[in-house]
User: Fold these one by one.
Assistant:
Number 1:
Amino acid sequence: MNRTDKIDTSVPHSARVWNFLLGGTDNFPVDRRAGEQVIAVFPGMVDMAQQSRQMLRRVVRYLAGEAGVEQFLDIGTGLPTMDNTHEIAQRLVPRSRIVYVDNDPLVLTQARALLTSTPEGVTDYVEADVHDPDAVLTEAARTLDYARPVALMLMGIMGLVGDDDEARSIVARLMAALPSGSYLALYDGTTADPAYTQAISAYNAGSGAAPYKPRDPEQLARFFDGLDLVEPGVVPVTDWRPDPGHENAPRVSCSGGLARKP
């Protein structure tokens, strides 16, 4: 069976809905309808998608630049857009090695077509589910060297794991496999804005897609237990080391942080 034959266009998929919110074209009518329903209740959803993507860019620049990390495990990568993790990292460190992980066949198809690499580095794609961290780690080991620091990127993905204990267990199991000097980068939607929470509740109830669970900032901070948070800690994505001239970006109901494994 061809990978594209597995694509279900009858229900929305979070990666494709997110692509729509970012202005992309790799989505289907069912994804656009789901995204439009969220925007109708919560118009700030587009700002949230864009500002969280900006934090990802700043995090990767910090990791590849200041922190000297050359390996990235990006789980729940979504559909390729401008300035993907490998593009940012390899601009700074051409020998960087990046593994993307997702479980949508359309993401797999697009990733193989678009996620190229510098000659010095490596970019790979793994079809796996964040609910199975052992499988993720096994597959990623084909490309990544777990004897050297790895940046684990969980950007907007842990909200798809509804059980808090399971979500923390997944993150802990992934980080346990990585050596000292590795990093955890994570952001997710929060309960800070009631309008956002209402929009997500309606999306969960009516879209047929995998449900998404916003958490409060204190719950997000628990994902970093045992790690050394990089300043400014767990904050709204717009407040995480904003670029000069962008300090007054729209406030969004999404928070995250970056932390180093001692």
Note: The first helix runs from residue 14 to 21.
Number 2:
Amino acid sequence: MPLELRHLRYLLAVAEHANFTRAAEDLHISQPTLSQQIKQLEKSLGVQLLDRTGRTVRLTDAGATYADHARRALRDLAAGRRAVLDVQDLTRGHLRLAMTPTFTAYLIGPLAGEFHDRHPGIRLDVREMTQDRIEAALLADELDLGIAFAGAHLPGIESTALFAESLSLVVGPGHPHAGRTRPLPVAEAAQLQLALLSQDFATRGHIDAYFAQHRAQMPIAVETNTITALTEIIQRTALATVLPDAITREHAHLHPIPLDPGLPSRTVSILRRENAYLSAAARALIRLTHRWAQT
């Protein structure tokens, strides 16, 4: 039996769902057809790929090895299709980009706006994700580029530094420290009532590490998982927060206050899968991001 791409997709679907019925529903084929196709694949390879004896279907050791190669083959073929369709003059194309949540508050607007002005024929698919999800999606060839932070990355992820992001304590117009320009000692900052991003954010981890390093307990009054909610809360209450300076520059009602010692800056990086094909659209976005970082 000649091997066809559908056999790879069928095997991976069964492995993902651990169930023939759910896999068949996902593939929009009948369960008997799916079972027959998998048996044909096993016969052609001369090895059992699935263990059907338990309550759920699982890959055998041979099946797990074959599935890894199948995923890689499908990713490479998808990359090959994009390479063939890539238009070097940027008159058309598709670019998949993800970034961690704080960047959607100040970076994606100007970046996407200028990119669309320059290349209106390119469809830009922008997603907001945590950094670990971005890296996993890059490795699975579900994204072309990611914007996140430098540091330890999953094997197979390539990181290129873009710019340093600085952070400050931030208060609203009704806060007693509004208008303060001299640095606020960290011990005093730790006495303020704070509204912070939730633990899902890399920024929150950075803030927690800073206060822990200086042995300061943070009295947290509010936690939120959106930048928009946080800026609205700070604008309308006497709470304080910590945000990247780039965000406060976009909101005239927010007042940044430097801390003493200062919060360490973070390196913002563009992430991609090592050795992945870079389309003309991806290269154009990288060039634009570098130019934006230098302004």
Note: The radius of gyration is 25 Å.
Number 3:
Amino acid sequence: MTTALTRRSDRRISPVFVGILAVTAVTGWATWTGFAEQPGLAVFLFVTAAWIVSLCLHEYAHARTALHSGDISVGAKGYLTLNPLKYTHALLSIVLPVIFVIMGGIGLPGGAVFIERGRIRGRWRHSLISAAGPLTNVLFAVVCTAPFWLDALDGVPSDFRFALAFLALLQVTAAILNFLPVPGLDGYGVIEPWLSQKVRRQVEPFAPFGLLFVFALLWVPEVNGVFFDMIDAVLRGLGISDFDTYCGYDLFRFWRDSNELCSISG
């Protein structure tokens, strides 16, 4: 019913998103075939474009779930077109997460779509809207890791395998970080409807700084070490080795000297 109240143009996939998909496909093909003169550049463009695609799908999942929960305003805001330029803050939603990937190989969450929560009734619906985004990252991670845990890597070029492993790492880190019960992140959004009004009012002033708090914590060597040990354990459980993710990140940073071990393994 709520879907019918949105115009068809509000749900038409944006040419911007189609363009990002095209870059993902072309650079993925170049990585697979070895067509690119600089394989590292192809891996960089492939992983970056695919990462932006996942960010768009993350925000789309929030918006689509909100639409079916009662917030029909998301269509008019352009959130259902998968256009990243329609988000509440394009810089936070796209540019900043890409910078985090380049700086530290971490899939930090970005900005968000604005949901009119007053239109939505029921705590479960509010929680589901918040959970929909990181669950999309979980699904993306499952797709990226499928060739590994299905033991279907025969014939897969090493550069593409490394790129896929690094992309999987980004999705796993994004899912875990997003589910943290920190104000401003989706994990807190999941539990917020179940908290008292008093607690919510006390926590609300800290919401704009939640992402910065997480980012600062990850710069602490001890916290960073524990966090990535957990990420590596999850990826190993999905069949991806530390070597695969290391070489993926090494190729991604094409402007640096590549590790010879990764080249030899290819």
Note: The chain has twelve helices and no strands.
